Amino acid sequence: MDRQVGKSIDESDAYPVYYRLKQLNSKQLPNGNTQLVYAAGWNQKCQVGYEVAPDRRIVKWSIVDGAEDCVIYPPRGS
To answer: What is the DSSP string of 35-62?
Structure first.
C-alpha cells in the first residue's frame, strides 16, 4: 500500500481503480486535501482511506474502519 503514495488516484494501477473498489465517501480536509474512503477486503468491511492532494496524487493512506477485516496493514508509525 505504501507504493500507492505518489501515484494519481486515477491511474489504472492505483489500488482503488485496479480492484474496482466501491467509494463509500469523501470529505474535504482542513489542509486542502481530500480523504476518499473505499470498501475493501474479501467481505467489503475493510475501509481504506486515501488522502489525495488537489492534483489527485495520493499523499497518505490509512485503514479507516474494520481493521479486523483487512488483510493489509497500516504504514509503520501509524
So the answer is: EEEEEESTTS-EEEEEEE-TTSBEEEEE
Whole-Å CA distances, 56 to 7, 15, 24, 46, 67: 8, 14, 18, 23, 25
CA–CA dist 46, 28 (Å, integer): 21
Give the list of residues 6+ apart from residue 3 with CB closer than 8 angstroms, or none.
Answer: none
Q: Hey, what's the cell of 44?
A: 467489503
pLDDT in tens, the chain (78 residues): 889 999 999 999 999 999 899 999 999 999 999 999 999 887 888 899 999 999 999 999 998 887 777 776 555 554
User: Which residues lie across from 35 on neighbouring strands?
Assistant: 27, 51
